[in-house]
Amino acid sequence: MDLALDLFTVAALSAGALFFLAGTVGLIRFPDPLTRLHALTKVDNLGLGLVVVGLLPHANGLVGALKLVSIWLLVQLSGAIVTQLIAGAIRERGHRE
Amino acid sequence: MTILSFTDVGLVLLVLVIGASTIFAREAFDAVIAFVVYGLLLAIVWVRLSAIDVALTEAAIGGGMTGTLLLGAAARLRSAEPDSARIGLAVRLAAAFFCALVAAGLAGALLLPPSVIPTLAPTVMENLVHTGLGNPVAGVLFAYRALDTMLEKVVLLLALLGVWSLAPNSAWNGIPGLRVYERPNSTLTFLAQLLPPLGIVVGFYMCWVGANAPGGAFQGGTILAAMWLLVIIARLEKAPSIGQPWLRIGLVLGPVVFLAVGLAGLVLANAFLAYPPGYAKPLIVAIEVALTISIAVALAMLAAGPPEQVQQ
Amino acid sequence: MDSFLFLIASFVLAMVAGGLIVILQRPSDVDRLMAAQLLGTGGVAILLILAIATEVASIVDVALMLALFAAFAAVAFVRDVSDPENTAQRQ
Lengths: 97, 312, 91
Prior knowledge:
- The structure holds three protein chains of three kinds.
- Chain A has helices at 2-29, 33-55, 61-96.
- Chain A is mainly α.
- Chain A has one domain.
- By secondary structure, chain B is mainly α.
- Chain B has two domains: 1-86; 123-312, no CATH class.
- Chain C starts with a helix and ends with a helix.
- Chains B and C meet through α1, α2, α3, α8 and α9 of B and α1, α3, α4 and α5 of C.
């Protein structure tokens, strides 16, 4: 059981790290602020989600696990809304110049 | 263990690069963004140094509040003459020299410590059990150095008075000129309706948990201040005029409660700011709640700036 | 397991570092708005891994603070960028 959980953690965290890599590559290579924002928010958030899922087996009981999940939800929600804000600002800047 | 050392070295290098980016930025806005990033990264550094309470405060103040304050200052500078006073090379070199001096002093103290490092930490841990608290930082703040903590809160109020005194005579008791979003934005409105309820819960949780785990009044109060500022920036509420009675009461509530408990200690426990045995923890928690409210109001008003509009 | 967790944490840190350096190099200021977003996700990931790896539960609270204040800082930055006075000064 422990071994299975450890393997699960390794797999999930590796996948999460991979998504963070993809997000950063997108941030560096994409041509446009809006596409870069896309890469940053969606991919990095997915990476964080995978990291949280991978850490759940090692969390501090049920309360600890709930805390991890709620932090992920908070980052997800606020990240999504803040992205829309930033995108609005980018579009506005484009219209002004 | 070596992997962790690599992480630490990488973190330090990143912090240094961001610090350099802050100094060499051309525009104030760019420098402030770099500074906020620096503050948030520093929170991770504090975690690696096992100073969790400091990490919480750094993320809150260095990441959020200082950024807001500096952006407000940069905005005011922009409306001043654009080309006045580009800082000369001599001033920059002098600043660099004194910063290097301070850094050398700190490095010397850390790398060449005296053979017996003076510390009261073991004594604090031994006696902490008498206060009923579980967090040694809270013990130091409210039991062993309570006078310092109380005076710090008074200093915060004095700083706020300093900011308010920048108001023109006609605008005294008026509404602070916190820059809000230029027009109502449905996305920002949604965020300002969603986040503050969560933030308020987290703020009081942070204050409550500070007795036994890292946290406390300052961190909690900063979260509450940030949520209030968010609501004002999103144009859901107007900034209050500084003459409002509830605002003034909220500001002094913390120091007054602290002072009252201190004076009561003269009667009940034979010393100023001493706690009667067995009642230390409830009194400290009561002080922390009052302080959370005061700190929240004070920090929000500090970021809002001096009054500009006359109260209607 | 701990070594693996630290390895992932340093990898994410390297990703955050790379992203930050690239963002802060770019001349346009709209790109810099993303710095807060990047720290809000990457920094939280690093802290959560550290919390589990070093078994200090309060680091999770630091991650919570980081998440909240990264969002707040982003709002303050966007407010500045959207300010019409700001665009007048920057050429």
